[in-house]
TrEMBL record:
InterPro entries: DUF1003 (IPR010406). It holds the Pfam family DUF1003. It comes from the Bacteria. Keywords: Membrane, Transmembrane, Transmembrane helix. The chain crosses the membrane at residues 29-46, 58-78. The keyword Transmembrane applies. The lineage of its organism: Bacteria, Bacillati, Actinomycetota, Actinomycetes, Propionibacteriales. This is DUF1003 domain-containing protein.
């Protein structure tokens, strides 16, 4: 097994693989590859025979494209694996955040329930108003009764 000093820098290779895979998925890459193949075929078709380096049926071009594909496939897989690891970490973080939010909501629901129970024992504004209205009516009735009996009203 290789120790850390002799092992290749996996993170650097992974970043390169991601950049390479990202570039291969662009229209620019397709245009570049098309231009390279067109120039390659054009050169080897049009120029004099002594300047051609890959005569028809372009075996060397096929070899180069196969070589490019043989390197591209593992690099793309490496980039996908790194993305999968990131997605797994993000999913785990989301799961933990959801669990915390769920616990917080349960706590708040219990707090609201306890506040409702406590409010059931506390006089509400409407209750106090109705009690004061009843008391006021009772006082007014006494004043009227006292006025009818001839007693001076207490102020």
């Amino acid at each position: 097994m290789l120790d850390r000093a002799t092992a290749p820098d996996q993170d650097r290779l992974g970043r390169f693989a991601e950049r390479f895979a990202r570039f291969m998925g662009t229209a620019r890459f397709l245009i570049y590859m098309t231009l390279v193949v067109a120039v390659w075929i054009g050169w080897n078709w049009v120029v004099p025979s002594d300047l051609r380096f890959d005569k028809y049926p372009f075996i060397f071009l096929t070899l180069m494209l196969s070589l490019q594909a043989s390197y591209a496939a593992p690099l793309i897989l490496l980039a996908q694996n790194r993305q999968e690891l990131r997605d797994r970490v993000i999913t785990e973080q989301d799961r933990q955040a959801n669990a915390r939010a769920h616990a917080d909501m349960e706590f708040l629901a219990r707090e609201v329930a306890s506040l409702r129970m406590a409010l059931g024992e506390v006089a509400t504004r409407d209750f106090l108003r109705s009690e004061l209205r009843d008391l006021l009516e009772e006082l007014e009735e006494r004043q009227r009764a006292d006025a009818e009996d001839g007693e001076p009203a207490a102020e």
